[in-house]
Design a protein that fits this description.
By secondary structure, the chain is mainly alpha-helical. It is 52% helix and 9% strand. The longest helix is centred in the N-terminal third of the chain and has 25 residues.
Length: 93
């Protein structure tokens, strides 16, 4: 799963950050309800090298708030992660 790109837009994060993990959890749980054997992987979004690209996405929100929340959820649910954030460290293009 790769969700959260629109959630971290500043206008959405201000009012919706408290719903980020509960909503993410509901989506994951709904997949598992349909197929309990489904393997779910969580992706950690790639870096944002410039603020306000594709809308008001703030690199600080992604790195300091959303990513730690996602890692906590992955640990809690026992879900493996694919970390595009670290993989794109030297790839501003």
């Amino acid at each position: 799963m790769s969700f959260g790109g629109n959630d971290i837009k500043e206008e959405n994060w201000r009012t919706g950050s408290k719903n980020f993990i509960p909503d993410y959890t509901k989506i994951m749980d709904s997949f598992k309800a349909v197929n309990p054997d489904l393997k779910v992987f969580m992706t950690i979004d790639s870096r944002i090298f410039k603020a306000n690209v594709y809308g008001e996405r703030n690199p600080e929100i992604l790195e300091k708030e959303a990513i730690p929340m996602l890692y906590d959820l992955a640990r809690e649910k026992g879900i493996k992660t694919i970390n595009f954030f670290d993989l794109t460290k030297d790839m501003p293009e």
